[in-house]
Amino acid sequence: MRGILEPDVVAALAAFDSPTVSNAVELAGVRDPADGFASLELRCLTPAQPPTVGYAVTMTADSTRPGEVRPHRIGELFDLVRAAPRPTVLVIQHVGTDRLRSCFVGDMFCAALQRYGGVGVATDGGVRDVAGIRQRAPGFGVFAAGTVVSHGAPAFIAFNVTASICGVTIEPGDLVHADDSGLLTVPIGAAGVVLEKARAIRAKELEYFELLKTDFAHDDLKHRLVKNAH
């Protein structure tokens, strides 16, 4: 576990979109700017809602093994979620042989997760019932490679492990920040600095967009673009 932030810090980070937070992490200089975020393969399936921010509850799973005899372990999963710091984001890495046919959560699952403090799920596999998730778990964020109509034969295999989904490595307890633009992790030890940088970025961007409403000088625009490049 990486540590727990004050709830108001988590809420403050959730007030910023994920690209702004990504820029803030970069400006904080706490990791390589090419690390810590998911590829375009991870899709936001619940767009046009506030960012999803929470502590990662990680696991590996498979739903595509023919003749599956392994236990599904869903009860253990919910015991883990119930005991985890809130808010939580379920992070599921597929470890079977047919990821493009995998499916790990639907509306019943996500609605139950929300009752236990879950705010989202992220997986390199599939999900289903997206319309039902929107209806029965409003505001719950779903980030996945796509949708698959059948849940197959789900088996959750290992819990509280390092998970790698769509190019980003996530450890148990990592702080996840995700929205329509994608998903990143926020270094918990630098959360205060990241928040400070995010506020400064927002102020600069507001100033920039106000400039665009004026009869600005070409050289001034170039200077600002170079200075504020993210």
Which descriptors would you attach to this protein?
single chain, 230 residues, alpha/beta, Glucose Oxidase, domain 1, eight-stranded mixed sheet, two-stranded parallel sheet, 7 helices, 12 strands, 24% strand
Can you tell me about this structure?
There is one protein chain. The protein has 7 helices and 12 strands. Strand 9 and strand 10 form a beta hairpin. It is α/β, with parallel strands linked by helices. Helices cover 33% and strands 24% of the residues.
SSE order and pairing:
Blueprint: H1 7-14, H2 18-28, E1 43-44, E2 52-62, H3 74-83, E3 88-94, H4 107-115, E4 118-123, E5 126-127, H5 130-136, E6 141-144, E7 146-147, E8 155-159, E9 163-165, E10 168-170, E11 175-179, E12 182-186, H6 191-211, H7 218-227
Parallel strand pairs: 2-3, 3-4, 4-6, 5-7
Antiparallel strand pairs: 1-6, 2-8, 2-11, 9-10, 11-12
Helix pairs in contact: 2-6, 4-5
